[in-house]
Amino acid sequence: MIDLDGATDVSAIASLAKTDQRVVPRKSQVLGLRAAGLVPDNIESMAIGKVKDGSDALNLGSDNNFSTSQRTQFYVFKIPRRPQ
Hints:
Elements: E1 45-50, E2 56-62, E3 73-78
Antiparallel strand pairs: 1-2, 2-3
């Protein structure tokens, strides 16, 4: 989850790793796949879609990179509506 209010505009900073400027991120983790008991492998895609009941869903996907040691995976998480 991100909130841009109060975050540092980094568009003019050439390298975040090599800057002396104070950078204020405004993000927080809302989903830990491993904490949820899943074993993600090389997640490469993310999209917001819809589920059958019309609710929003977060879709994550990965491919196996033509490797027998990796798996193609798709995860779909229903996004609950926040109270207004």
